[in-house]
């Protein structure tokens, strides 16, 4: 019983049990840490869970395999929980897609977990805990950037967006973008993790305070640059009917839905309003080919004013007639003055990748998802009587440096959206926060109108005005803030600036790793 063989078996059992406990703890921490994102951004439990996981990850003498799998397990639950709202879209038509929900939930966690697991391998490169942390934080932000374009990209819930609970804390996005905020926040949390690890070992790690205090001081310095902005005399009316997604394309309800937009738009006097903004595909009719409904829509337009509405537009692509997910600018006389077509389409929502090669069990999806036309990227909306405007349809706004024309910066970014797919979940709140980050990064006013979701005007400093809450029905008149006198650094130099921060951290880590040790003579 106590022989060598028995002793070896018990050791293996103890090791397996230890790995299971650590994996379970990492999984639990990941699920709780997901609550640092909107709408739970100031949730302390989320930060505590993230710090405790990092403290465990930073334990000495971990193998690469151990680092990878611990971070993978954490990342699985972290992203599966924070992106769980995606599954709600499959429940709109429960009979067809409910069977796919478990698979989609698992696939989300399994894929996005790699964006924690692969950066964790960078911990093996450092010779000291401080070098390890610097390498890991740098690698994590690099993989956040990779997440913005791999497989068409999905930079949703970048770590820096967790700071959006206080508009002053996101002012750094005007200098280093959301990626820079991600780096600063992760450095602070990692420093706290090293400090906590020291306390568990009954030692006071003074050096770890530098990892906390340096990025904290940078964030505070940015916060001090915050200034309220004056409002101008240009009034925009946001219109949100909150039409449930199950009703939106019901053939018997199309006319009623359309009329609801018109009635809401003119429910209060339009005398001071210059621009009325509807949501994504607010018009179910092709207004460039439907004179009857085009005439009706002028009821919602102020005298000497304009309407911007989302809708489908029939256009040519590769010699074929295809629908485009668009927005039109229409004047009081019923003329379409300009338009914008969505250029960054949603895979499996607006087109089906590799349609001809899909297996037979994907036929229900293939039969529902149509392929939309792809518009011109960074196309501005130019109407002489209006400010120069950029356009973004729904999730296009989540892409840093992917939504504002770099050669001709607009004064206003119009975002038409529809979060009806995601129900009452975290998704619409996170979507609004993405628009808020783009406003601060680019120094532009964002006008966001949602069919269902959260409509608001976001100033270039991140302040939110005229907010219509999720599932509320109503209108909101907002005076647009005056434009900034000069562009933000991030608008001018883009991701070059967070790259500089990352390189500084890597160099710092290299210097720490290769610092000569003192030899004590006896």
Question: What are the salient characteristics of this protein?
Answer:
522 residues, six-stranded mixed β-sheet, 12 strands, disordered N terminus
Describe this structure in words.
The chain is of the alpha/beta class and 522 residues long. It contains 16 helices and twelve strands. The chain has helices at residues 4-33, 44-57, 64-82, 94-97, 101-112, 114-120, 129-147, 173-200, 208-223, 245-248, 254-265, 291-297, 363-368, 427-442, 489-493, 496-513, and strands at 231-240, 275-277, 306-317, 320-331, 336-341, 380-381, 389-393, 412-417, 445-450, 455-458, 464-468, 474-481. It has a six-stranded mixed sheet with strand order 5-4-3-2-1-12. Strands 6-7-8-9-10-11 form a six-stranded mixed sheet, with helices on one face. α8 runs parallel beside α16 (496-513). It starts with a helix and ends in a 9-residue tail after the last helix. Residues 1-7 and 361-369 have low confidence and may be disordered.
Give unreliable regions as ranges: 1-7, 361-369
Count of distinct strands: 12
- Our estimate of the beta-strand percent is 15-25%
Quick one: biggest sheet?
Answer: 6 strands, mixed
Question: What is this structure's SSE topology?
Answer:
Blueprint: H1 4-33, H2 44-57, H3 64-82, H4 94-97, H5 101-112, H6 114-120, H7 129-147, H8 173-200, H9 208-223, E1 231-240, H10 245-248, H11 254-265, E2 275-277, H12 291-297, E3 306-317, E4 320-331, E5 336-341, H13 363-368, E6 380-381, E7 389-393, E8 412-417, H14 427-442, E9 445-450, E10 455-458, E11 464-468, E12 474-481, H15 489-493, H16 496-513
Parallel strand pairs: 1-2, 2-3, 7-8, 8-9
Antiparallel strand pairs: 1-12, 3-4, 4-5, 6-7, 9-10, 10-11
Helix pairs in contact: 1-2, 1-3, 2-8, 3-5, 3-6, 6-7, 7-8, 7-16, 8-9, 8-14, 8-16
